[in-house]
Every structure is written in structure tokens, then in C-alpha cells.
Amino acid sequence: MPTSTTAAGSNSDLVTRLNSPDAEVQLKALRELKNRIIGNRTKKLSFVKLGLVPAVAAILASKAQAQAQAQAQPQPDHDSNLLVQSAAVLGSFACGFDAGARAVLDAGACPNLFLLLSHPDDKVVDAGARSLRMIYQSNMAPKCDFLQDKNMEFLLSLLNSDNENVTGLGASIVIHSCETTAEKKALCHAGVLKKLISLLEGSPSQRDNSLESLATIMKSNVEAVSEFVGCESGRALSSVIELTKDRYPRTRFLASMCLIAVRNTSSCYLQDIGIKTKLVHLLLELHEDPGQVGDEAPFAFSSLISHKVDLQKLALEANAIDKLYNHLQKNRLNPKRFQGILLALADLCSKLESCRSRFLSLQALNLVSEALTHDSSDVRTAACICLRCVSRSIKNLCAGNFMNEMIVPPLVRLLDDPSTSVQVAALCAVGNIIVDFTTDRSLFLQCGGVKQLVQLSKSMDSTLRLNALWALRNLMCLADYMCKLGTFMELTASSLASLICDPEPFVQEQALALIRNLVDGCMESVELVFAEDDIILDAVGRQLQCVSRDEIWIQGLYVLSNVASGNEFHKEAVMHQLVPQADNGAQSFILKFLQSNESQLRIAAVWTIINLTFPSSPSACSRFVKLHNAGIVSQVKSMVNDPCPDVKLRVRTALGQFTTLNDGAT
Amino acid sequence: MSFFLSSTIDQAYHQLAQIEAELKAAMAGSKKIITREEWEKKLNDVKIKKEDMNKLVMNFLVTEGYVDAAEKFRKESGTEPDIDLATITDRMAVKKAVQCGNVEDAIEKVNDLNPEILDTNPQLFFHLQQQRLIELIRNGKVEEALEFAQEELAPRGEENQSFLEELERTVALLAFEDVSNCPVGELLDISQRLKTASEVNAAILTSQSHEKDPKLPSLLKMLIWAQNQLDEKAHYPRINDLSTARLEDPNV
User: Fold this and answer.
1) CA of A332, closest CA in chain B: separation in Å?
2) Mean pLDDT per 10-residue run, chain A (666 residues)?
3) Phi and psi (nearest 5°) for B238?
4) Which of A29, A413, A540, B44 would give a disulfide with A17, using CB separation of 3.0 to 4.6 Å?
5) How many folded domains does chain B comprise?
6) A181-189 and A192-199 helices cross at what angle (nearest 10)?
7) Are the Cβ atoms of B209 and A205 closer than 8 angstroms?
8) Where is it localised (chain A) (predicted)?
């Protein structure tokens, strides 16, 4: 194409001119380059590829170092211009473009840009500070280690500057680098928090920077929050509250972020209904903003209401579900906003049935179903998370409102998604939806759901294995025998046995829980654990002896308990696991469970004993004798006044059966 | 300026609320009549500082970019502008360049002023590039226009669906013989330039931590609103002509 040849021609010419010995030529080339890349990602990328960044960084380096050596002696005008233009070019490469920021950092430009901050010419200082700010707004920038004294001093010198761009840079560095509690504490001790509070009185941009930095430092940092709240007897806090009424949406947004950080970190502040309601309304209103604020508002809203039923109630009263749904209906939502709104709806529906029913009454499920096939993996993940929260509604699960053509086929397809986070989210949603109490699961089976789940249960990724087993566990819950058999055939006994011994404990737990549900119910299903020479039952027995985790023991014991509810053969197999044949003095492991501090474990253990000694079964008596000889009967008897009422109740049932068996024996 | 006006919007609200409260108390189902004398007495009771009025005028001159007038006003009234007057000159040069159709020049000027403005404001950047395309089409440079659209604007359209639609609308100009009568002809209108120019102006002001709209027009809007509210409750000397701010006798 002729256009591309001319473009390439002028581009390589640009390289030559940047490397020219003539400062005038360099200056013109820099300005031209700047005007071509600003606002234009495509150009930035192609010039990064052409290797222009190091050439620009070289101009900056030579002039900045010459200036530093001259120590504040005025330099020729064109040198200042070269500094300004080269800094602007580098800043623009880094602005909103990670590959560009990477290239600028690789070219070693940062130290030289920092030199510009002490230049006598304000224009140069501005250019250097702006450029560094762009770099520090990118994830690529290195973290500043505040725990080193000289870095902290430098940061304070930036924040104390009279130049607005320089204080802005200081704030950007805080926002970018501050992560650990130790760093946050160090910042407070060094007086950064106080300085930032004083910047709240500054210009609009200083105020915004200060709000964002304060929110960063106070997040999960109790000490900073109490210093902030106590500052000048609450004046800082009230001025932030006042800023939630500011005329600029960005300022209102950042002020609310700050207040959310205070609330979420220390539950003793900002608890009155007035401020809670105000934050809910403000954030919902900020969703209207067409720009960045509107994109970020749903995420802030989520952090406000997440895990807090009181705020979820307030949000429902403020019509939050309807409002979010209206936004969701708009065409061409950008992916970030789409994702945010879905996640906000998910949080709203995570606990309250009233929210879920409002959500479902709006037919919002249609939009979520569409989002399952969105181009962006973040949106697909968010749609799954939303579906998962809404499908916690038992009422709607019972009505089979999720097991339909609109939801199940696209959801099952996501189990095969290229992105792991989508797969995990889809598995969680599937896990809820297939807990279907009334209608049958045939649609899910027809879509090949079981095959997918089984495949994922063998994934290399342990999170996928965990969630796949979880879903299968829920699928097996109260399922009919044909469904169980089909799933079991797909899974195979040997791979179930190896999942019981998975390297990850949480996978082991789910595998055992799955088997527990599998063998619950009819006699035929109990038979399944005896496939391939009892491979599953043996694995369960081994886990109960070797592993030491209550969660795993509980699930393992319920497997035994369910098997023990079967026929004589089944009961004897469980006995075989419990009371070792060879009398080598080894104690039965069930004694340890009966003596455990975990009441759930004691219940499971007593249930197993109850099922083994059910008086009407033929060999109950001989099993009772064996249990007696192993010291198990006396242990159960000693538990007659167990502190846990549930355990006590089961122990009494067992003791009743023991008496019957004793009477029969004598 | 003799009309009811206060230096800050908050104060205006406050005073309005007071008047409203008084009216409510006085009202017994029918509209109250307030004579010119009473009204003027009330107005005279409202104390407005001359400096505040001056600030309002300065704010208007600065925001609208009347740099010479602002300079004169500063000397005459001693009111300090809240922004360096030199930056107004730069801003006006940008605005003027767009108004004259020299968009490329305007872009370079903005980038010299502050490279962040166009780098962090994709919509404004797109509108400037779109304006550049419009100017090329206006000047009959079809080849150049197509190349520019493909090279500079098409990638922005890929990044943003609404940009793509605007781009399509603009390129459609090329399809018509008589552009002045075509459905997208308004893009060639001078008002399109003014729209783009005011968008740039606002962005520069925001980047200078300055409000993008002058305060005066919103105060006038508030005056109209306040009068409309009062109309339901009282007959009073009204301002009908904002340019003279003359109090009209109530016609009862």
C-alpha cells in the first residue's frame, strides 16, 4: 500500500533526525513525534516497535546530566526546550499504554526525569513531573520502597513542593506503590497522611490526588483511619464528607472512595444511617457519568455493600437493582462498566432473597444470559458470578427457573472457556444451578455438562478440580440412581480414588463429599464404592487414618456412615475399615473422632455406629461385640452428657440400640 | 447590576429560602402582593460586597477568554484573576485556531500547553481529528481526507463504537455532490467548529484547575427559577428583561 511506504519512510527519517547533532533538528523531530503519538495508541505502538524510545531517552539523558553538572547554572534555551519536549514524548509513550511505559522504563528514563524536578525552569519541572506521573499511573512502574528512609524523604519533598504537578507526582507514587500494612504505617509515621490531609485544601487537582492517596493508605489500615478520623478533632473527616457534595463528579467519587475505606477498615466509624444512605445514593448517581467515574462507580458500589446486609437493604430501598438494570440495558456498554454492573448486581443478590426476587422480576436474567457469550472474558466471568449469587434463591431453584435453554447451554459452553477465571466462575454457577430439588437435570446432561465437569475434575489446575468436584457433589445431591450411575461411569472408580488422595486437601474434601452424596440413598448406589476391588472404600479408610484435617474426616466418616446404612455386606465392609482384623494393639481411628473437640466430627462418628448397630439387621449383635471389644461402645456410653445437643441426641439413639442388642444377647 | 444577586450560589439559595419561608408564613391561601417600595426595601437589606461582584465579573471575563478586558478590569477594580492571564492568551489562540479551521495548529498548541489533555481525553481528541477531517473535505482534498480518515481516525473507531459511528457520518460527506443539502451537511456548518472549539476550551480550563463554565450564567438561571417559584405565591416587582434588570410593577 502506498500510504504505508510513505509512513515508514518518514518514520525512519524521524530516527535519523532524533540522532542528529543539530539541536534544532532534534527539537523539531521531538515536537513532530509528540504531536503524532499523543492520543494515538496505534502510533505509540508502531514507534515503540521502531525503537524510537531509546533515541528520545538518550536526548533527555545527555541534556539532563549536563544540566545537573552545571548545577543550576542557566543553560541555553534550546536545552530547556529539548528537555521539555523529550520529557513530554516519553510521558506520552507511557500514558495509558503499558507497552510504552515498559519501553520508557527499559530505556532508563526515570532517573533522568527525576533530575528535571530540580531544574530552575518551571516549565522543565512541569514537564518532568507530568511525565513521571504518567509512568507511575502504569502498572509497569517499579514500586517505590517506602521503608527506605531516603525514599520516604524524597516522597515528602515531592508532597511539600509548591508545584502542583510535583505534588501530583507524589500522590501518584503513593497510589501506585503503597500496598502492605507496613508501608502504610511507615507513611503515617513519616507524616505523609497529615500532609495529604492538608492538600485537601489545595487546588481541585491536588484535592483529588489527596483523596485517592488517602483512600489507598487507609484501606485495611486501622491505624491510619484512626489518625485520619482524629485529625483536628474530625475536621478532615468532615471536609471529606463535604466533598461528596462537590460539583465535580470525580471529586465526589474519590471522596466516597475515601469514606468507604474508612468504613470498611474500622466498623466503628460512619455507621449512622444518614451517611450510609448518602453513600448509596451518591454512588448510584455516579453510575450516570459517561466517563471514567461511571466506569469505576460500580466497583466502588460493590465494595460499599459487599458482605453487608444492612447496606444491601438500603440499596434495595434506593431502587439500586432497577437502576443498575437500566444501565445494563444500554447498548454498547464498555466492557469494564458492563463487568462492574454485573458484579454490583451479584453483590446485591448475594445475601437477600428480596433482592434476588426484584432482580428476577425485572427479567434481568435475559441480559445476564447474553453476557455469558460476551467477547470480554471479564464480562463472562462477571455474568457467571452474578448467576451464582442469584441462583442462591432456593425458591427459584425449586421452581426450576435456572434449568432452562436460556441459561444452561451457554453456561456449559463456558466450562470449556480458554480463560481459567471464566471456567472457575462458570463451575460455581453450575454448582448452584444443578442443586435442583424438584425438576430433573436432564437438560444439563443433554448439554454434555457431566462430561465437562468430569473432565475438569482431572484438570492440572487445583482450583478447577476443586470447583468441578463441588459441582459434581451438588449434582449428586438427592439425584436418582440413573443420574448417579451415569456420572460414576464417566468419573470411574480409580480416578475418584486418586482424587480422594489429591495433593490438595480442599480437593480431597470435595472428592469425599461427592462420594458421600453418591452413596446416599438407595442400595444400588451404595454398591458403587465397591467397584474395582473396593478401591474407593480403601482410599477413604486410608484418608481417615493418615490425614489430620477435621473437614476431610467429617466427609470421610459420612461416606462410611452412608455405606453402613446399606445391607449386611456393606456394613461388614465398614466394620473391616473401623476395627482392624489383625489384633496388633492398634486403636480404632473412630475412637479419636468420638473424642474430638469438633462436634460435627463426633456426630458423624456416632451416626456410623448407629448404622452399624441397627438392631433389626442380622449380624448387628456380632458387630456390637466387636465394637465393644474395641472399646468403642464404652466411649459412646461416656458421651451421654455431651455438651452438644445434637451429639447427645444421637448418642441416646445409639445407647437405645445397645440396650436392645444387650437384651437380645442375654 | 441592581438585581437580587449574591456572590455565591449557596447564599442565593439561603436568601431565597428565607423569602420563601416569610411568604409561606404570610400567605393565607391567596397570593400576597408586594409593592415596589416593600420589595426595594427588602433588596436593599441584602448586603452584597462590591468585591464579590467584581470577582464574578472577573470570573466571567477569564472563563470566556476576554484577556484584554480582564487586564483592564484588573487595573481598574484591583480584582486579581484566579488564573495567570498569560494562559488565557494561549487558550484563546487554540480556540481561535479551531474556529478558523486550523485544527492541526490547534492540536499542536494544546500539546505544547499540556500534553496530558489530549492523551487522557479520547473523546476530545477524536472530535478534533474529526474536525480536521471535516476541514479537509470542506477544502475538496478528497484523497488526503480519505488517507487521513484511514490512518488516523479508523483506529480510534476500532477502539470505540460511538467514534466509529461518528466517523461513518463524517465520511458520508464525501458521497454527496451538493454537501450543503445532504443529510450530514450540518457537520460543515460553522456551529460544528464552535462546538469543537468550546470543547477544547473547557478541557484546557479543567486542566488548569479552573471551572469550565462562568458562574454568572448559572446565577441568572437561578434568578429565573426563583422568580418562577415566587410567581406561584406572590405578586411582586419582577425582572423580565435580564439585560436591563428593570423591576416591572406587579400587574394585579
Assistant:
1) 7
2) 42 87 94 95 94 95 85 70 96 95 96 94 95 94 90 94 94 94 93 94 91 96 93 91 93 97 92 93 95 94 96 96 94 90 97 96 94 96 97 88 91 96 96 77 88 95 97 91 92 95 95 95 90 93 88 95 94 89 70 94 95 91 92 94 95 94 76
3) -100, 155
4) A29
5) 2
6) 70
7) yes
8) Cytoplasm; Nucleus
